[in-house]
Amino acid sequence: MVPPSPQRSQRSGRAVAPLHSGATGGRSRDASTELRLDDLPPAAAALLRAVRAAVGPVPDLVLVGGAVRDALLGRSEADLDLAVPRGALSLADRIARRLNAAAVVLDADRGAARVAAPGVQLDLNDFRAPTLAGDLAERDYTVNALAVPLEAL
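Predicted structure:
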């Protein structure tokens, strides 16, 4: 699955990221809600910029869960979780090396890892199903069933 290109907001003309929701079967939803990297807390936005620089283009890498909700609500908290179809453990290693951080395997069988350093905590997980829509449907809370392609932010 290739994430859609960022769309242009009718209100501001700025690029906006398509929002995927488990409630819409993982499909992009057409809403008046705009989400940009700068909508996240500054530390979270800086971390995600560093992730993009570290890994280059990863088409199916998505920001999921509470960080998406909190950014949409204008909250300053940011619990960053990224999901990818497969390869989260190696991706965590690449990111940790770039950030001079530690990659900690949380669950090797399920492809779950954490990148940790002072002031940095980023969780990465393999999709829980073959597709983004399936992954979002498998998440435990509705709020965790929100996703935005990282490349689109």
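Summary: Confidence is low (pLDDT under 50) at residues 1-18, 22-32.
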